[in-house]
Structure formats: structure tokens, C-alpha cells
Amino acid sequence: MQIKIQPMGMTQTNCYIVTIDKKEIIIDPGIDAASWVLHNVTNPVAILNTHGHYDHVWSNKALKEKLNIPIYCPKEDVFMLQKCPLGQPTPPSRADYAVVGDELLDIQGIKVQYRHFAGHTPGCSIIQIKDVWFSGDFLFQQSIGRWDFPFSSGKSMLQSLEKAMSIEEDYTLYPGHGLSTTLKAEQRVLPYWIEEVKKNLSH
Q: What is the pTM of this model?
């Protein structure tokens, strides 16, 4: 598995191209990602969104028009592709496939496991391919996604963090922003964030 990374736009959202068996999966094509993606793919098979925020889906439409490949998005965030809840002028796109919960997909022979971790958005998910998590805006290096946006939920975030703490296997994490890390490294700081969310909920 080969992974190419390029931070995009003012928010420096990581766009990923994952190559397996000479097929490419595009993850979270953000603002102005289309030209970089088009220069770096030869056999793209799918566009995957970890969640529906504008800085992760902005180039869905441009890439769909150029490549005519399916867009996968968590079911609860599909509505965000049409109208940005944060008021950004995102080019509207449509999900060809609404991913439900912890769904295992087979995309042209590539096993893709979505893992649902709601909180940052209702559909917020990580995308697991082999032993790698593309963690979107759920987990970052030493940090977690915000839970104060429209359609965010502190209660759901708390449940998701506790779910992440319970996972015994280790994974390499490639987040939506910033540097890569590992699940085990982040599990050492997650108790802090669990308490932060709890404090916020009790106010």
C-alpha cells in the first residue's frame, strides 16, 4: 500500500491517495485538491469522505466530473454535501453510496472498513484500510475534533472516545489535519480529552 498526502487550502486538510494493486482510492479531497489528485492518479476507483465538512469534500464535484468514479460518504453526513452547515460555498456533490455505521466495503477487491465515531459530525468516521486509519476529524496527533459546530454532539463524542479507548489493536493514524501518529499513542492522551468533554457537558 502506497499513501500520498497533500494538505489543501487554508485549513490544510490532508487529502490522501491510497494505491493498492495499481488502483487508487482518493480520501477527503478538500479545497482545490482536484488538480493535485489528477496529476497523481492513473487508475482511480473511488472517492471516500470521512465526514461531510466543506474542507474534506470541496473537490468531490470536480473530481466526479473528471473521473466519473463513485463518492462514498457516511449516511448521516450526506446532506452536508448539498448545503454546507458551516455556511461555506462548497460546490454541491452527491454521494453515490451512503455508508451505514461500521460498514465493510469491497471496492474493486480492496477491503475498506468504515468505523463510525460520531461527535464532530453525526456521520464522522475513520476509514480503515489494512492496518491504517484515515481518522478524518475524529483523532489528531494529541488532539480530537471539535464538538461545538452545528450538528456536532459532545455526548456522541464522549461515546466515540470511549469506543476508541476500548480498541486493543494498534493502527497507524493519518488524520484530517497535521501529522501521522498511532492509535496506541493517542490512547495515552484520550483520557484527558474524555474529561474535557465531560466538563463541557456538565456546564
A: 0.97
